[in-house]
Amino acid sequence: MEITTVEQAKETILKWLKENHHQIDEFKDENANFHFEIDFPVGTMKKQRIIQPKDYPQLVLILNGVSIAPEHAEKLKKMTEEEREKLYNEIRKELMFSEVSYDLNLDQEGIAKQVQFSYEFYFDALTKTQTYKALLLNYRVLMYFVTKFNDKFGIPEMKESPETLNV
Question: Quick one: pLDDT at residue 167?
Answer without folding.
Answer: 37
